[in-house]
Amino acid sequence: MATDPLIYVHDLAKHFRTFRRREGVWGSIQNLFVREYQTVAAVDRVNFSINCGEMVGYIGPNGAGKSTTIKMLTGILVPTSGEIRVNGFVPHRQRSQYVKTIGVVFGQRTQLWWDIAVIESFKLLRRIYGVSQRDFDARMELFGHVLGIGDYLYTPVRKLSLGERMRCDLAGALLHNPPLLFLDEPTIGLDVVAKDHIRHFLHNMNRELRTTVLLTTHDLDDIEELCRRIMIIDHGRVLYDGPLDQLKQQLLRTKQVKFALKDRVQSARIGAFSRDGLELEQVDELTYRIRFDRTRVATADLIRQILGAVEVRDLLIEDESIEEIIKRIYAGEASLEVSA
Fold first, then answer.
1. Which residues of 193-222 are buried (b: 16+ CB within 10 A; e: fewer)?
2. What CA–CA distance (Å, rounded) separates 84 from 12?
3. Above pLDDT 90, what percent of the chain?
4. Which residue would you say has higher pLDDT here, 318 or 335?
5. pTM over the 0.70 mark
6. Residue 217 has pLDDT above 50, yes or no
7. Residue ranges per structural domain of the chain
8. What is the pLDDT of residue 28?
9. Residue 57 pairs with which residues in a beta bridge?
10. Nearest-CA neighbor of 232 among 320, 331, 84, 319?
11. Which of 49-58, 70-79, 258-267 has the least mean pLDDT?
12. Where are the alpha helices (DSSP H) in the chain?
């Protein structure tokens, strides 16, 4: 028997009424007596559902409506119209009960107390969420093992690096073992090692506890590492909702072949690939990359041409990155149909 989705959103909309200011001194005087307002649809009739255990990437350019959607889903904002039901709750109507069933990490905003030790913040959160001492001890042991936060539990939050604080924020958000976690730019400003720790931790939480994750980010490596499903929003409307692999297949236009020549003698024959439809780039003395439009050039034919023209030590076929695909969508160079 089919189960109800953990998150259900139907025709969700959020409109803001903004004051249009006139320029100059005379305009300022006019603003005192006659004001012009305009209505902006930050989110415009959005529909989606998310099942228990899913990790979903929710992406879009600045001002697309991502954060507004998340704030409505977490109960911070009241929708203008439409329906939201999350884990059996209407977030803005049942907020006090609802927030005990979710975890939230908003980018560089911390939920920990700035001037006290990390462990003291966790103890306060334990009491707020009503976590038993036994469960608290077990989760602290887990977070210490997976997130590596044991070394700075007794350090004031203000003395932590950004990466250390983000790990602690994740631990705080999951201290009460919520079934649903909202992440807004969880790896922003972090180095490669810190990002890898965060992603590994989220994978573990999802696999072992079936924690459902809705992730908004500008780092598309986060999406590719964590999410099988992706939703793209722009100007308040969902442009795509479906598998990441399907998006790649639907819009995968550019491929590239990177190859290393056997010796310098082969370099003289590279000119054969400087023609229409092929973009040739020299990576180093003996390594080259050819980019091409897969709708115009067959990959197998190009490889045969390369192997027939030059002797190579190594050859690698690469697809267009998800980042390039998203850029083309935002630029209006690619059309999408919203998946069911």
1. ebbebbbebbeebbeeeebbbbbbbbbbbb
2. 7
3. 38
4. 318
5. yes
6. yes
7. 7-249, 254-319
8. 74
9. 215, 230
10. 331
11. 258-267
12. 24-33, 66-73, 95-98, 118-129, 133-146, 162-173, 192-209, 220-226, 244-251, 299-309, 322-330
Beta bridge partners of 16: 40
* Chain mean pLDDT for the chain: 86
Residue positions counted in the chain: 340
For residue 182, what are the β-bridge partners? 104, 214
Q: Which of 8-12, 206-210, 238-242 has the highest mean pLDDT?
A: 8-12
Domain 7-249, CATH? 3.40.50.300
Of 178, 173, 231, 228, the C-alpha closest to 198 is 173
Q: The tokens of 102 are what?
A: 């979710």
Tokens standing for residue 161: 């690096």
pLDDT reading at 216 higher than 70: yes
Q: Which residues pair with 59 in a beta bridge?
A: 232
- Going by C-alpha positions, the residue among 207, 211, 226, 205 that lies closest to residue 181 is 211
pLDDT value for 91: 95
Q: CA–CA separation, 121 vs 254, rounded Å? A: 49
What is the SS3 string spanning 308-334? HHCCEEEEEEEECCHHHHHHHHHCCCC
The string of DSSP codes covering 234-286 is: ETTEEEEEEEHHHHHHHH--EEEEEEEESSGGGGGGGGGG-STTEEEEE-SSS
Beta strands 102-106 and 36-50, pairing class: unpaired
Residue range 254-319, CATH number: 3.30.70
- Choose among 37, 36, 45: nearest CA to 14: 45
Residue 147, SS3 per DSSP: coil
Type of residue numbered 62? N
